[in-house]
Design brief:
GO terms for molecular function: ATP binding; ATP hydrolysis activity; branched-chain amino acid transmembrane transporter activity. By secondary structure, the protein is α/β, with parallel strands linked by helices. It is 36% helix and 29% strand. α3 runs parallel beside α6. It is globular, with a radius of gyration of 17 Å.
């Protein structure tokens, strides 16, 4: 059994006939904590969306737990254990926090409707706000709700698109600590698309840098040098 959890082999993907990703090769191992870096518009979100099945792969293959899932629809990928927390959080504003959380069950296809107690260990703030409408939470609280909702289906991997965007620093720190705990205590593999280099360095053990739809650099986060940052990430 290979250690790799997720493999992208020579993946080209995009919107309709327009490719955004070109020949992407990427291997993510079980338990990895990965940051995906790059300037705006280089294909980071498209890469996440291609993994969860919202963007069609026109060439190459996607292998998850040694199974080729390239042709699987999104719901099937969710049930296999891939959770996607999109940019902008996509909380349903008029639903209560509790009902937003329960939406996480639908992704797993499980019939259980009890919120696991560990959700409130990771996110104690949510417990106090269960009856509140999701739209009344602060941005940081909504982000925590979105991550908690992703956890509800007990995923093997979580894909997060810019979870710190527009969030106050104290909550950013909380999100970092919680993601580390989820990774450490539950063994969930995490891929985070991130703009903040400091956050990426503190959070992740590995990094990938994208430019013009391809992976141009990768390695341990300790190898994320200032010259790489300057070359590919500074605007």
């Amino acid at each position: 059994m290979s250690m790799s959890l997720l493999e992208l082999n020579n993946v080209t993907a995009g919107y309709g006939q327009t490719p955004v990703l070109f020949n992407v090769d990427m291997t993510i191992n079980k338990g990895d904590m990965v940051c995906l870096l790059g300037r705006n518009g280089v294909g980071k979100t498209t890469l996440l969306r291609s993994i969860i099945g919202l963007n069609k792969i026109s060439q190459g293959s996607l292998v998850f737990q040694d199974k080729n899932i390239t042709k699987f629809p999104t719901y099937k990928r969710s049930r296999y254990g891939i959770a996607y927390i999109p940019q902008g959080r996509e909380i349903i504003p008029y639903l209560s926090v509790l009902d937003n959380l329960k939406l996480g069950f639908s992704a797993s296809g499980k019939s259980s409707k009890r919120i696991p107690s560990e959700i409130f260990e990771f996110f104690p703030m949510l417990k106090e706000h269960l009856p509140r409408q999701g739209g009344l939470l602060s941005g940081g609280q909504q982000q925590q709700l979105a991550i908690a909702r992703g956890l509800m289906c007990n995923p093997k991997i979580m894909l997060l698109d810019e979870p710190t965007e527009g969030i106050q620093p104290s909550i950013v720190q909380e999100i970092e600590d919680t993601l580390k705990r989820i990774n450490r205590e539950k063994g969930i593999t995490v891929i985070v698309v991130e703009q903040k280099i400091d956050f990426a360095r503190q959070l992740a053990q590995k990094f990938f840098i994208m430019d013009k739809g391809s992976i141009v650099a990768q390695g341990q986060t300790s190898e994320l040098t200032d010259s790489l940052v300057h070359r590919y990430l500074t605007v």
